[in-house]
């Protein structure tokens, strides 16, 4: 990132035409967003204790890297840990918890599915744009798509040491997370005062938007797919929950920049302490054990994004195994997954 930043700052201005300079800055911010996401993934490794054998190294590196992208490191570490302990559990999972048919209709103030307009492609597109641009920020501030166990958004806020997300023993770690984010905010403000808005926009703000987009893009598709089950308490166990994730393919970027977080996510839910550079080998081993329970897709992730947005609107089932449906009735029969 430093190298590309140096090249962009010193050489894009030498291009002879405004259109060329615009294209170069656009390409630069896109690439920096990719590498910035790679840094985010390394901080994610730190949160799981997979970056180093030493806790203090993991937490120091993770705190620095996540704070750079305005992520409260320990806050996310604790809530994400709960997600791993209850993946696919309708009452305990911490993120991408789907609506039931009843809560979906209540959200849309409808008495029947026929009244709901969210089967419209235009609605789906608008929802996707909002999710990709603001989903991560909304998650940090309101725990959107997670459990709602507090009366207000502030009570589910990742920056609030008294949030219902955390335990009392976590209090000062949340404060440390906030200090990291506030320190980075001061850095960005100082950056702006010395080098101007354009410099901050190109080298940090637009890559920051890209990082947020890629983060939601990756995690949504790891946990949302028309054939993926969710479980009520009496049907859930850890092995079932970990299998309710899916590996996908994202080519060169997924393997070399995103550190295989897309391609080896099923393994990650069974053993999150395995570092990314051993994850492909370990994934091959668990595939043999999981057999047909292992889920993988080599479909274009952009196609999958649209498909999941259109078909994964709520879950339904009367046997404790809930499958995705949409208002048009498309989806897997829950009884076939029992």
Automatic annotation (TrEMBL):
Residues annotated as domain Fatty acid desaturase: 24-296
Keywords, sorted A to Z: Membrane, Transmembrane, Transmembrane helix
One GO term of the biological process aspect: lipid metabolic process
Highest rank taxon of the organism: Eukaryota
Any one GO molecular-function label of the UniProt entry: oxidoreductase activity
InterPro entries xref list: FA_desaturase_dom (IPR005804), Fatty_acid_desaturase (IPR012171)
Membrane-traversing stretches: 171-192, 204-221
Pfam (any one): FA_desaturase
Protein known as: Fatty acid desaturase domain-containing protein
């Amino acid at each position: 990132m430093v190298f590309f930043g140096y090249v962009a700052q010193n050489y894009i201005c030498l291009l002879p035409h405004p259109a060329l300079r615009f294209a170069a800055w656009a390409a630069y911010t896109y690439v920096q967003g990719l590498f910035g996401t790679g840094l985010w993934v390394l901080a994610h490794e730190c949160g799981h204790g997979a970056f180093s054998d030493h806790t203090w190294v993991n937490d120091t590196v993770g705190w620095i890297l996540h704070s750079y992208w305005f992520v409260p490191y320990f806050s996310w570490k604790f809530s994400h840990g709960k997600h791993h302990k209850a993946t696919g559990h309708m009452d305990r999972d911490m993120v991408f918890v789907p609506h039931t048919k009843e809560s979906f209709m209540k959200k849309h103030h409808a008495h029947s599915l026929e009244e709901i307009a969210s089967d419209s492609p235009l609605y789906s597109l608008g929802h996707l744009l909002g999710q990709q641009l603001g989903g991560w920020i909304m998650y940090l501030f309101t725990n959107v798509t997670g459990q709602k166990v507090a009366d207000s958004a502030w009570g589910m806020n990742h920056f609030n040491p008294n949030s219902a997300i955390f335990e009392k023993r976590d209090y000062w770690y949340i404060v440390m997370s906030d200090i990291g984010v506030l320190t980075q905010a001061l850095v960005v403000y100082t950056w702006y005062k010395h080098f101007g808005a354009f410099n901050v926009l190109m080298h940090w703000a637009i890559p920051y938007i890209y990082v947020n987009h890629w983060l939601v893009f990756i995690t949504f598709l790891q946990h949302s797919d028309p054939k993926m089950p969710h479980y009520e308490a009496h049907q859930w166990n850890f092995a079932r929950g970990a299998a309710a994730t899916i590996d996908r393919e994202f080519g060169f970027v997924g393997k070399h920049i995103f550190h295989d977080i897309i391609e080896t996510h099923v393994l990650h839910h069974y053993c999150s302490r395995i570092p990314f550079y051993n994850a492909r080998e370990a994934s091959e081993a668990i595939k043999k054990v999981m057999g047909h329970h292992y889920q993988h897709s080599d479909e274009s992730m952009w196609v999958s994004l649209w498909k999941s947005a259109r078909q994964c609107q709520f879950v339904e089932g009367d046997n404790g195994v809930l499958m995705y449906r949409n208002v048009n009735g498309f989806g897997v029969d829950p009884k076939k997954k029992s």
